[in-house]
Each structure stands twice: as C-alpha cells, then as structure tokens.
Write a structure and sequence with these properties.
Layout lengths: L1 H32 L3
C-alpha cells in the first residue's frame, strides 16, 4: 500500500513538473517573437 501511495504522489509531482516545464518553454517561445 505504501508503495502505491508513493508512486501516485511521485506521478503527480512529475506531471506537475512537466506542465511547468512546458509552460516555461512556451513562454520563452513567445518571448522570442515578441520584441518590445
């Protein structure tokens, strides 16, 4: 049971990190084209 719970928490952490990483790359991508 403990392993399953840890795995689920880890999966949640990884998915949140991936979302953050994608958002960061997306923001950088936009900033490249926006020259103010």
């Amino acid at each position: 049971m403990k392993n399953a719970r840890t795995g689920r928490a880890l999966a949640k952490q990884v998915s949140e990190y991936l979302l953050f990483f994608v958002a960061q790359r997306h923001n950088q991508h936009i900033n490249v084209y926006r020259i103010d």
